[in-house]
Amino acid sequence: MRTIVTGLLLAIVSVGGANVAAAGGANSAAAGANSAPADSAAVPAGDFAPVLAPAPGKQSVHVTAFRLGKIPVTNAQFLEFVRTHPQWRRDRIATLFADKEYLSHWSAPDALGKGALAQQPVTRVSWFAARAYCAAAGARLPNWYEWELAAAADERHTDARSSPAWRERILEWYARPAGRPLPAVGSGSANIYGVQDLHGLIWEWVEDFGSLMVSGDSRTQGDPDKLVFCGAGALSAQDRENYPVLMRIAYLSALEARSTGRVLGFRCAQDATP
User: Fold this and answer.
1) pLDDT beyond 60 at 139
2) pLDDT of 104 strictly over 90
3) Other C-beta atoms within 10 Å of 206: how many?
4) Distance (Å, rounded) from C-alpha 177 to C-alpha 69?
5) CA distance 207 to 205
6) Domain limits of the chain?
7) Would the pTM of this model clear 0.85, i.e. be above it?
8) Spatial separation of the C-alpha atoms in residues 264 and 201, rounded to whole Å
9) pLDDT value of position 55
10) Rounded CA separation 47/206 (Å)
11) What is the rounded CA–CA span in Å between residue 25 and residue 32?
12) What's the rounded Cα separation, in Å, for the pair 84 and 88?
């Protein structure tokens, strides 16, 4: 049902002329420093065993080659976007496409202020807004399998999920007290693909977040700051030991497309150039 509603909202955006996939082309250079090749990393194609089995009896998926932003989108980059696409300012965005906390930590609709430093990752953005930014930059949001494949890597291995050290580093981030100021992007070490901050900084939107898993309790939908997670026993997982990934899946599944969160941001992806 949520997927149907999101599709209808996207149709409304298109009819209303606010679909930046079409409207953002003229301004893509101004909005999208993240679309430059130097700011994205190549992730090669491969077969990958995701935490959630893609189908009964199927253990792996083939992920085609793609490019992923080396770092999350920053406040400075998103500020440039809302200045060139003012329909995405917090004082102009339709309530259908963002909740009341959208960019609420900025000092003004077109200014960052002390509470949002330029090189911090932009947060409190909805899926609609993140998707619009990437489209204006000639890019897109990564899908879940792309994001999970890239995030499975560490500095030396393409798949470090069996490493206790890899899991412990992520769990340490989960255990940090909430409310701390976010570090600047690029604070984490690059993985084997050259991508940074996939863990330890923020949660990140993916294109198909709504198809991962839907909680049976509607009270968990749409409030990501509550961090209400489903128990592992409720998950159709082929790797129940990979709790850090299951936490992220549960978080994303609790969102609505208009949701925002204090530590919820995004990065963009692109299809690999032939």
Assistant:
1) yes
2) yes
3) 23
4) 27
5) 7
6) 2-271
7) no
8) 9
9) 85
10) 19
11) 10
12) 9
Which H, E and C letters describe the chain, residue by residue? CHHHHHHHHHHHHHHCCCCHHHHCHHHHHHHCHHHCHHHEEEECCEEECCCECCECCECCEEECCEEEECCCCEHHHHHHHHHHCHHHCCCCCCCCCCCCCCCCCCCECCECCCCCCCCCECCCCCHHHHHHHHHHCCCECCCHHHHHHHHCCCCCCCCCCCCHHHHHHHHHHHHCCCCCCCCCCCCCCCCCCCCCCCCCCCEECCCCHHHCCCCCCHHHCCCHHHCCCCCHHHCCECCCCCHHHHHHHHHHHCCCCCCCCCCEECCCEEECCC
User: What size, in residues, is the chain?
Assistant: 274
Task: Check if CATH label 3.90.1580 holds for domain 2-271.
Answer: yes
Task: Report residue 265 as tokens.
Answer: 């941001």
pLDDT digits (tens, 9 = 90+) for 17-38: 344 433 333 333 333 343 344 5
| pLDDT tens column, 151-210 | 999 999 999 998 989 988 898 988 888 788 999 999 999 999 999 999 999 999 999 998
